[in-house]
């Protein structure tokens, strides 16, 4: 049996496959640990670890976690031809796959965050002064950068030679955090992991030291979806966490979060973007993408986005496909069923003047 550098865990190729389809994260974490520690494998397995990858197991794994499978190509030179062909085919698909604007333009540094200067300034000053809190609560409407800021904070805290505000987004740790593969930065969906049993598991896991980073960081998205029992189970750990653990919670409904939880966190309120700010950001994206669009059309896209950067980028993405040449106000109104500004002005003017026939 192989001893894996993972807290109190042992695993063999046999129970790898047995547990693969379970909902537990253990097999995937351990497998990632295998392929990211070639030196350890060589020392403990005498270079003979290709038996881990039966073709059926390998195929299941690469379908679900292709980004990690690419590491196999870099670190495991003894894959059989069938496995190599499978990875090669999916690599071509991955390279040619279109990514929406919202993903391609997701901020990679604090300086790229739009419209949340009050939060960026506070967080960067805290990192520089070594005054980082043990728990943060990010509150705000959808699409304003809560989860993105949480990831950037995790990158800054776990940066090489850090914590550092000026971290390299192309660093190995930063890239693994961005795609959700870092073993020490755990993103949890509060909507589907809201039971007291799952929080108890989290409490047990957070006691162990991080594997490759300075801090073990838990990002719980939509934390308001946790049950009251789960909140209460988390409370003690949140109040007195281990020195190597940080919590970052995000929510759009702060009223559903227990006061005992909010009082234990530093709260940051994310603001909806102004139409001018969104329009400026969309103009930058359109110019970089080579999309022709007028200033009035940019303002028209920004209005129905309701202050959300992601919503505005999604509308721009759709309109780029909808319009063959140039994005116009008329095309946006037609696609989204919006009334023309002149029509609205005429209606208001007629009401004001009492001209109901008009």
Percent in helix: 40-55%
Shape: globular
Decide which structural class fits the backbone. Answer: alpha/beta
What's the pLDDT, averaged over the residues? Answer: 77
Give the amount of beta strand, in percent: 5-15%
How would you concisely characterize the structure shown here?
The chain is α/β, with parallel strands linked by helices.
Provide an overview of this structure.
This protein has a five-stranded parallel beta sheet with strand order 4-5-6-3-7, with helices on one face. It has a two-stranded antiparallel ribbon with strand order 1-2. A two-stranded parallel ribbon has the order 8-9. With 358 residues, the protein is α/β, with parallel strands linked by helices. Helix 9 packs antiparallel against helix 10 and helix 14 packs across helix 15. Strand 4, helix 11 and strand 5 form a beta-alpha-beta unit. It is 50% helix and 10% strand. The longest helix is centred in the N-terminal third of the chain and has 16 residues.
Please name the defining characteristics of this protein.
18 helices; 9 strands; about 10% strand; disordered N terminus; alpha/beta; 5-stranded parallel beta sheet; two-stranded antiparallel ribbon; about 350 residues
SSE inventory with pairings:
Elements: E1 2-3, E2 10-11, H1 13-19, H2 26-35, H3 38-45, H4 55-64, H5 66-75, H6 81-96, H7 101-104, H8 117-128, E3 135-139, H9 146-157, H10 172-178, E4 185-189, H11 196-205, E5 216-221, H12 228-239, E6 245-251, H13 259-262, E7 266-269, H14 275-289, E8 292-293, H15 295-302, H16 309-322, E9 326-327, H17 329-336, H18 341-353
């Amino acid at each position: 049996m192989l001893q894996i550098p993972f807290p109190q865990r042992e695993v063999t190729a046999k129970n790898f496959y047995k547990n693969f389809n379970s909902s537990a994260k253990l097999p995937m974490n351990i497998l990632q640990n295998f392929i990211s520690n070639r030196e350890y494998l060589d020392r403990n397995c005498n270079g003979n670890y290709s038996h881990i990858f039966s073709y059926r197991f390998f195929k299941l794994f690469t379908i679900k976690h292709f980004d990690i499978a690419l590491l196999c190509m870099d670190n495991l030179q003894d894959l059989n031809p069938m496995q190599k062909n499978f990875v090669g085919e999916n690599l071509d698909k991955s390279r040619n796959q279109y990514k929406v604007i919202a993903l391609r333009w997701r901020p990679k540094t604090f300086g790229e965050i739009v419209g949340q200067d009050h939060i960026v300034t506070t967080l960067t000053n805290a990192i520089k002064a070594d005054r980082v809190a043990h728990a943060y609560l990010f509150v705000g409407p959808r699409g304003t950068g809560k989860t993105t800021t949480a990831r950037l904070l995790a990158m800054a805290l776990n940066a090489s030679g850090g914590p550092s505000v000026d971290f390299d987004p192309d660093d190995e740790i930063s890239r693994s955090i961005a795609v959700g593969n870092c073993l020490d930065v755990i993103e949890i969906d509060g909507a589907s992991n809201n039971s007291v049993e799952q929080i108890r598991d989290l409490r047990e896991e957070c006691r162990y030291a991080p594997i490759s980073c300075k801090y073990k960081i838990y990002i719980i998205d939509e934390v308001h979806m946790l049950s009251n029992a789960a909140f209460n189970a988390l409370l003690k750990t949140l109040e007195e966490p281990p020195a190597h653990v940080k919590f970052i919670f995000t929510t759009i409904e702060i009223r559903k979060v227990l006061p005992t939880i909010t009082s234990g966190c530093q709260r940051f309120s994310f603001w909806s973007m102004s139409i001018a700010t969104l329009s400026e950001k969309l103009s930058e994206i359109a110019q970089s993408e080579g999309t022709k669009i007028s200033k009035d059309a940019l303002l028209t896209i920004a209005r129905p986005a309701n202050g959300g950067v992601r919503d505005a980028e999604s509308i721009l993405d759709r309109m780029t496909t909808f319009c063959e040449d140039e994005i116009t106000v008329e095309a946006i109104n037609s696609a989204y069923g919006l009334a023309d500004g002149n029509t609205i002005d005429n209606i208001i003017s007629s009401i004001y003047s009492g001209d109901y026939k008009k």
